[in-house]
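Re: Re: token formats

Sure, here are both.
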Amino acid sequence: MRSSCLLLLLSFFCVAQEHLLQESHTTENLRGVSAVSANVIWASGTHGTYLRTTDGGKTWVATQVPGAEALDFRDVEAFSADEAYLLAAGPGEQSRIYKTSDAGKTWSLQFTNHEPKGFFDGMAFWDRTHGIALGDPVNGSFELLATKDGVHWAALAPEVLPPAIEGEGAFAASGTCITVQGDSNVWFGTGGKAARVFRSSDRGKTWNVSETPIVHGAESSGIFSISFRDAMHGLIAGGDYQHPEKDEANLAYSADGGVTWKLAGIHPQSYFSAVGYVDPSVPTGLLAAGSTRAFSSDTLMRDKWMVVVETNLNAVSFAPPWNAWAVGPKGAIMHWSFGSMNRRRE
């Protein structure tokens, strides 16, 4: 029974992978994307720009948050056609969090980082009112903020975290350097002098940290993206964005909740800014994107990628049934369709 199910899933990848470049109506550099469903998707980028579609990307509407024209929105987390959060990344007060509950007609500024050394990298949500945001280290500790009501944000005590290594930071390349799962699990990946994964099972009250085999050492290298399909199985991806063609230790996986990590055997492994599972409900299917190309595979056990798309992309988000959207420079938006999951599994 299991083998026939696997063959069916493989057939989706081998036969039904399609990708289509969509018209975004903007030339801004897009860094964040959040697929609520197969119809509702939000995206974000430079100069205070955000985009929204309610028809699966047939029609995108791009506009700016008033008063935020100088900001770079590196992450967006959406929950409906009306409700979304935006995270701006930048030094000091350029790092901010906004929210809309009326499809962007109005935006409320929920948090401004008044720490001059601060720099936000990404955010993630367990549900529409409980979320967590990550910032680069300040005074030797990563900055973490949390909201319990979807309105107010408060800093987590730095002493609950293992200290950052000098020269260690996080990357705001795609808004996916931090991820959550279930009701209370959260992980984030780091880069620079170290490539480590911090993990918590109680929404950030306590933390542990693990070493990973991802390439690091240079300021431009490390873990750029992290994704978990359940409490045990996760992916990390990255590399060196200044040397994106290098086929080195850029993709790894965990089967024990992020305690240990093993390098994936799929090649080539160029720089990846985003990675994720096509459908977290099944153990097959991943998509990775970076500044040179996007890759997809039905399994980590392959030695080569199944599909390679030669394009520059920054971030990826997934929506059932087996859909993915990726965004990149100059307003690039690409949609992947991996086939319908409505067919009966044997």
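Second one below.
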Amino acid sequence: MGWDHHRSNQIEAQLAEEIAELELDLPYVEVEEKDEIVEKQLNPRSWQQVKEYLASHKVLTDSTDEAHLKVLLELSDHRVPSEVKDTIRLILKCRAVSKLKGTYVTGPSAKVTADNRIHSSYLIHGTTTGRLSSRGPNLQNIPRSGPIKEQFVSDPNRLLIGLDYAQAELRVLCWLAHEELLRDIFRDPSKDLFTEICIQIFSEFPNLDADEKKRIRTLIKTLVYGVSYGRTAEGIAADPDFHMTVAEARVQMDSFNARIPQIKKFQAEVVARIHRGEPLVNPFGRHRRFYLITSTNQRDVENEAMAFLPQSTASDIGLEAAARCTKEGIFIVNLVHDALYAEAAPDEVEDVKTLMDKIMVQTGEEITEGYVPFRTDASVGKRWSDLK
């Protein structure tokens, strides 16, 4: 992908200023310098200083990493004083902005080549779930919000084109399980998947006010996307957006699951297969084996097994489509899970966009034997941030 040095330098300066302002509110601590004890402002990136600061307030922890610090925030004020919690929140914020700057600004900037581009490496066996992965730098993990994507640009004489598969993993899962409810919704272009399921489960949905519709739609999205990943009623109940007890969440999950019996049957068969020691093989011949299942890892292994076939197949469909686009002369510059990005001259954009859509749809429908239609959403711009 192309790189805008000027915009990158601006973002780096903005983040550096934000870090400096945040650190001004950190407390002073005693540190040893040249055999002398001096008072200095706490360095949030120094685990030694953070640990000593906590110990000075009688707060002990085995580690000062993000996970351990978040656990401290959940403890009572009696065990961790409120002023210490305020400092912990500030430390986490400082670290988050520092990571943003180092991982997504200065890091990639150092990898820009003479052609003013960043060339990521893609690994076809880099994940256990079968998804394509990226490194050096990782261009599949760029934050969606904020200014980071503004650094990535097209060639001065070209435009960026992005096409994203709509619900690719769900369409693949629908085919794998031969689930009729989802198939019928996908086959009707006038229907919105989540609205239709909302109506299926909540008959009063069309008559609700906007806020309640939004809450229910978010819940349904969580249930739909969570079906491949073993989302639990406990996990949904813990989400502050839903204000549900575990029992209420389980009722909604049971109601949703009852409408997708073939998917639940398919997932049960997948789980049975791995317990028999059989490998999972997707349509592209990608294998996933589970050698040891114990009482400790059983749930995680089963969730990973249920996610493997739809996730790896959808990813491989995208990779196959990208290869076919390249053979047709389309200049692919990035792949991000279900999305393909290309560059084209302004007067070629519409033709390239049409051809990419044709190839991506044909690839998806070919692999899934025409059971469900595939669809893409397209956007065009000079910067990655301009695209949806």
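The two ends are 17 Å apart (CA to CA). DSSP finds 13 helices and twelve strands in the chain.
- S.
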